[in-house]
Amino acid sequence: MFITYIRRIFVVIITIFTVILNSCKQEKKSEETSVTEETAVTDDSKATLKEALTFYASFDKGVDADFSLGDTRMYTVPNRKATDSAQVGLHKPDISRQEGKGKYGSGLVFTERSKGYIYYPSEKNIAYNTENWSGAVSFWLSLDPATDLKPGYCDPIQITDVSYNDAAIWVDFTKENPRDFRLGVIGDRDVWNPNPEGPDNENPIFNKRLTGVKNPPFGSGQWTHILINFSNLNTNNGEASLYMNGKLKGTRKNIDTPFTWDLSKSNIYLGLGYIGLMDELSIFNRNLTDKEITTLYELENGVHTILEIKK
Fold it and tell me: How confident is the model at residue 29 (pLDDT cuts 50, 70, 90)?
């Protein structure tokens, strides 16, 4: 009897052990499947991002773009109207490209507010469309707005053929502390403000066209990812959204004001009044999905990772 009892206990122990072992194997298999599926989704996002990419400047080997469908070169001008005297390259003493100062490798360092502009031409680098225009702009910034910026509005990026208030896409910091961070997607000035009175940036009509973020996630020694996502501009249902560190911060809908460009005069201006670091400027020919935005934000080695994807 005793031996039979012992055998029964042994059988029960073996059965319990087998159940636990099978359960662990199944759990491990599920985890492996989940990781594989997640990797596949990320790889798909990288592939679709590569297909949509029209411009990319890493600043690692110079200021010219690593990839572009248009002119790869950076230009410097004393003012917007002096394009005939534009110099190829970076020729502003308060802006430099420095190794180890980027989010990945080298980056742009802005140290002072001064006259003059640096830019890349928009033509072919942005998929501008007169009937239905969509796209996305991505870059990284590092600064403490409260201590680094001097008084006055500043635009880390501004894309337009005229100015900030006329068919323009930009982000800016407000003019004094505490600084808000804002997305401006502003159509043709003669449509939204046909009878201007006073400065546009103090106009309530202008301010209604902005998407603002109070207490934005910037700080000394840290990098913040900025993504401008826009779709269906030059229709009655335009939309523009601001993402920071992969999170949606605000959306403006029902943008029906037209965006009329002389494309040959439109440029991608960098660092207007900005003081801080900038890296990894990339532009896409359509608005991005939430998954693509997350993938872009989480890239371990920057947009170079996307360029390395084989079709």
Answer: low
Separation of alpha carbons 64 and 203, rounded Å: 37
- Tell me: domain 54-307, CATH 2.60.120.200, correct? yes
* Average per-residue pLDDT for the chain: 90
Please name the residues in contact with 6: beta carbons below 8 A apart, sequence gap of 6 or more. Answer: none
Buried/exposed 271-291: b ≥16 CB within 10 Å, e otherwise = bbbbbbbbbbbbbbbbbbeee
Per-residue pLDDT tens for 236-293? 999 999 999 999 999 999 999 999 999 999 999 999 999 999 999 999 999 999 999 9
Instruction: Output the pTM of the full model.
Output: 0.86
Per-residue pLDDT at 222: 97
Top mean-pLDDT range of 76-80, 112-116, 229-233, 300-304: 229-233
Residue 134 and residue 240: Cα distance in Å, rounded? 9
Reply yes or no on whether the pLDDT at 118 is more than 80: yes
